[in-house]
# Entry
Amino acid sequence: MTTLEASQKIGNYRVLEVKPLPHLQGQYIRLEHEPTGARHIHIACPDNNNAFCVSFPTVPEDSTGIAHVLEHIVLAGSKRFPVRDPFFSMIPRSLATFMNALTFPDRTSYPFSTRVEKDYYNLLEVYLDACFFPRIDYEAFRQEGWHYRFAEPENPASPLQYSGVVFNEMKGAMSTPANVMFRSLGQAIFPGLTYAHNSGGDPRHIPELTWEALKAFHARHYHPSNAYFYTYGNLPLEKTLGYIERYALSRFSPIDPGTAIPDQVRFSAPRRHEASYPLAPSENPHKKSQVLVAWLTTFVGDVVEVLGLSVLERVLLANAASPLRKALLESKIGEALADGTGFNTVFREAVFAAGLKGVNPEDVEAIEGLILDTLRELVEKGVDQGMVDAAIHRMELESREVSNQGFPYALKVFFQMAGPYLHGGDPYLALQFDAALEQLQAERARGPFFERLIRKHLLDNPHRATIVLKPDQSLTERQEREEREKLERIRATLSQAEARRIVEEAKTLKLRQEAKEDRSVLPTLELSDIPTSLEDVPHTLKTVQGVTVGLFPQPTNGISYLDLSFDLRGLSDAHLELLPLFAFTLPRMGGGRSDYLEMAARIEAHTGGLSAGASLRSLPEDYNAFRQSFGLSGKALYRNHAGFFSILRDLLTALRWDRAHLKNLLGQLKASYEAQVVQAGHLYAMRLAAQQFGGVAALRERLEGLSQLATLKRLAALDESGLERLLDDLEAIRQQLFRRGGLRVCVTAEEPVLEELEGRLEELLAALQDGTGAPEASQRKLPERNLLPQARTTAVAVAYDAKLFQTVPYTHPDAPALQALANLLRSEYLHKEIREKGGAYGGFAVFNPESGLFGLLSYRDPHIVRTFEVFAGIHDFLNQGIEAEKVKEAILAAAGDIDPLLSPDSKGRTRFFDDLSGYTLEKKRQYKERLLQVRPEDLRRVAQEYLSGEAALAVIGSEEKVKEANQSMLRPFEVAAI
# Structure
């Protein structure tokens, strides 16, 4: 690592700060590009997953989605890389561990990360040219943003329509209560600022966006003077800066972008804000509203104050013992915390909010009063300092943990400091948890610090807004009708010349989309760049109390990870469908001498959290033979091992059921499933299709799909006697599951503490009842195959389509070719047909080599019939010929899928449970070797052999869309409401 000092120059950059980052074994280096004023922060550390991000403050002045549309178009061709979609074209030419672009309320960020040095510089060139020199051509604006088209593109007498990727994406996004609530939060708390506008775009206003406005927005916002760069990893900083200078910054002169966001003018009195979200006509609107009380608090760059409010959020809301959460959920007014509840630092000034969903609109005053009364009582009686210590402990653990879950850790570091960085705070302090905590503890020692925070930011703060979100069963239909009527009025006023122009523009766009491109201008990896080896994770297998235990030494930074896997085979089918509820309630109930409130406090004080869940994992040789298990996982700092294992023993051997609390938890879990359906509709459509094949796929759908939501709705409606029977069933599950027979345990920690953990584990296992083992393959009766197309309707303005084929298991020689085929179809066919031409947000092909399921999917799609026609066209596409270069790219993409980025906590877990299910290192190596040998003829052959027979079809969409589709489908859908 090169030694740098403040005031030193690197080319045109001035080093402003160099500070140590001991927890990353590295340095924080802050620089400025003197000619343009571009800012740059580099985290120099030994991690080989190198990351890059450039962010631009983007401050929309309306809800046309200008920042969001620009994000899409920036990635749709640039000067050096004048292909239609260099971003999507790079996905199969790279081994990136992350590639994306993200539009926030006040900024747009372009991050990537990769473990391959050549890949890093390839992506860096593409990203720099995309951001600073995009073509922003008119056809890209029409495709990605919005455009007029006739229903029959060459017939001006047919209905006029809107189309566009962002237009349809936001139709789907604004169908979810969570998105409506977030947009309402910006409007209610920040009137007059950029946050009052929908940065993603409101479908009613997106058609107001012009191409000229978009180009002007780019010129002002995507300039080095408005750029904030971030890099991370072990590659030389000097080389990266040289690339940035050469390919971007050297071509600009400084400007004043004028993107600073002022402080919000404070309210003199609290306000009320109302909004509506779409609800399906088949659903009962009773108790479907949400009420959220929100306050504007402090500048996100005030790191100590933000840390204090973050601790306060955990104290008030994190678990069942948290006083505000407890008061809200035990009030019986609602069933779960409202969307938006928590401490939100995504804005320049942070927002604190709390509320309930599953309420009636007339409950507004009661919810406001409950929240304010609870806060007043806390100030009067004092905040429980034990709960404060527990919250700080939990945040300390999170600050230590190096995890790649969700985002690569390399980018999590950026998100941790992004607010202060982009808004003029101190990014270094935001990365120094211990230093900020030291200041907080000093403040705490001087008096009632958290009581002061409550009074200052909540009780005595008039900048408060109560947001009432109401269901509207006619909203989707009304908005669609208003859109049709508006388009009919526009069509009626079109001159012949204007109508001809729409027809001609449709032809031009189609020609652009179908034009064959020379992608050789894009950099690429070669098959020789794919690492041929797979990491062999060192470990020891032992037998403790008759249980197989894997001990994995990993650099976990003072955190131990424990994963227990119990055998499910003795469980009845009736009990099987209760497992998601059992898993959700297990770490939220009491145990031993602790009721659920005391247990919640113990878990917060002594662990980094517990999680549980069922798994039905197919075996490599047969996807309908499977290992069925129930996992309980937890983590703790080394100093808390005694408390950690005490908690586990109490939950496993002496779980304390509470009927009233179970009722609350049922409502929370049901609400969570309901929220996911529209947000991840393609996954639910895929599960709905998969269950038609019967077998283990149908069992998984009962646990993870819409069948589970139906189960939760039924359970949530139980009366008191029904709840008593449910408690008996849950206790029966506990007694059946938590035995030593068939149990497997994985322990991941640093070498010196593994012996101590082994001793504690022996005591825990001794407390469990004994049991007899059984063969790995299940004898459970599996559901029968029934390929009947299924549709489920809900209040959503777009559709989620799925077509699935059952193919071959993991060890079959054709499985790698199917995985490569999925990547080829996704990048070369579906992206063009579903997204570019069809206007959907996404079109995917996926292959799961464990389940043997090959899926064709669409996401936030305006079409149903057309999309299934596209799905049916895969063979025609393949018969046109497959270039060897495209096969290479498909293999590259698949190689990244089978060798994912793992962090220390997941390396042990992954290896242990892969081995248990038969996915040994040797079988993985064989799979990878076969993948590298795939040829074009293999792709055509497996497509013909496995994707030509009967398929399972499913769709999630509005009742109107499904009804219209059924008039054209050869095999109509069987329709039911969600």
Summary: The radius of gyration is 28 Å.
